[in-house]
Amino acid sequence: MVLNITCIPGDGIGPEIVNQAKKVLEAVAKKYGHEMKFTDILMGGASIDACGEPLTDEAIATAKAADAVLMGSIGGNTSTSPWYKLPPEKRPEAGLLKIRKALNLFANLRPAYLYEELAAACPLKEEISKAGFDMLIMRELTGGLYFGERKTVEENGELKAIDTLTYSESEIRRIAIKGFEIARKRRKKVTSVDKANVLDSSRLWRKVVNEVAADYPDVTVEHMLVDNCAMQLVKDPAQFDVILTENMFGDILSDEASMVTGSIGMLSSASLNDTKFGLYEPSHGSAPDIAGQDIANPIATVLSAAMMLRYSFDLDKEADVIEGAVRQVLKDGYRTVDIYSEGMKKVSCSEMGDLLCERV
Ligand code: IPM
Ligand code: MG
Fold first, then answer.
1. Quick one: what percent of the chain has pLDDT higher than 90?
2. Each residue's pLDDT tens digit, 257-312
3. Which of 11, 69, 96, 264 has the most ligand 1 atoms within 8 A of CB, as the residue to mutate?
4. Hey, whose CA ends up nearest to atom 5 of ligand 1?
5. pTM for the complete prediction?
6. For 1-121+269-360, which CATH superfamily applies?
7. What is the mean pLDDT of residues 11-28?
8. Residue 121: is its pLDDT beyond 90?
9. What integer pLDDT is reported at residue 119 of this predicted model?
């Protein structure tokens, strides 16, 4: 099979980690007789520096023509980088929002689970973490506050900023369906998270989720207010299977969930539309403080590449092989610095890539 993949190395540690993922994909391709065709595009700060904008229309066209997109990370230090002196629509993050919208990537899957081998890194008390946890946050990605009308106006001699949160029934329905479909393949529980005690958009969310739930009698559904969910994530994370939520709540809760695992450098994500097309990226950011030092953890990106093989190409066996290689490398005691603990073998980003290739 020929796999046409657009890569977005991006900023910070992005290029280093994407290189390792490419290496691992090449190793898988060699093993199973596939052909990887990688085309790089610029996005974020790298694109601002080269083209004066965070994402060009040509770059979008290249991404659209591919079967899938594999991304590293974008953005720099928000207090020191000159990118953040630009107006908001010219900053690195605007490129990410633009590609999400342009490719209609409305379903953002963010798994968060506790690795047995890394359980010591979990910041929760042992009495809580010993139960283990394995959840998937299904975040709506192209609606809500992120894409609502916004403006800053002057009123009565002072500035006033307005952001609007809108959701239509169809936007809620399509992400709810994705949530229930994936729950069916997991432990069959959906926790829909909203703020229905305050927001109209949340009340509509709850109504539509209940309608969709009626089509999935085998899946248990519960509703949880977002503030309570933030609390439950540290109190009893084992209760969650699929967390289904809107854009902003999902942004915040997914950071919390990944922190609770203690190993954000291990967590992958996928952003999907209604076809097989998807954009795959690690859940972590661009870590500009350690960029270029070859010490970043490439595993989240490598696992994102595995998700890509699974969801965009239906290559389940190949994805299993990558995930197996990750587990094996951990069992063999290799750790990048972010997940290092005493007695383990500390390796660089590129060494980790090589070790994974060997195990593939
Ligand atoms: C994320 C990031 C983005 C978001 C930023 C960089 C715009 O935090 O993917 O979670 O808020 O969606
Ligand atoms: Mg975020």
1. 96
2. 999 998 889 999 999 999 999 999 999 999 999 999 999 999 999 999 999 999 99
3. 96
4. 93
5. 0.94
6. Isopropylmalate Dehydrogenase (3.40.718.10)
7. 98
8. no
9. 87
Q: Is the pLDDT of residue 169 over 90?
A: yes
Active-site residue, 280 included: no
Atom 8 of ligand 1, nearest CA residue: 251
Please give the distance, rounded to the nearest whole angstrom, from the Cα atom of residue 258 to the centre of ligand 2: 11
- Name the residue of 8, 93, 100 whose CB sits within 8 Å of the most ligand 1 atoms, as the mutation to test its pocket: 93
Read off φ and ψ for residue 292, nearest 5 degrees: 80, 5
Token representation of residue 89: 């629509």
267 lines ligand 1 (CB under 6 A): no
- 3 state SS for 84-139: HHCCHHHCHHHHHHHHHHHCCCCEEEEEEECCHHHHHHCCCCHHHHCCCCEEEEEE
Average pLDDT, integer, range 319-336: 97
How far is the centre of ligand 1, averaged over its atoms, from the C-alpha of 251 (Å)?
6
Fold of the domain spanning 123-260? Isopropylmalate Dehydrogenase (3.40.718)
State whether the beta carbon of 196 lies less than 6 angstroms from ligand 1: no
Q: Where are the domains of the chain?
A: 1-121+269-360, 123-260
Same CATH fold assignment for domains 1-121+269-360 and 123-260:
yes
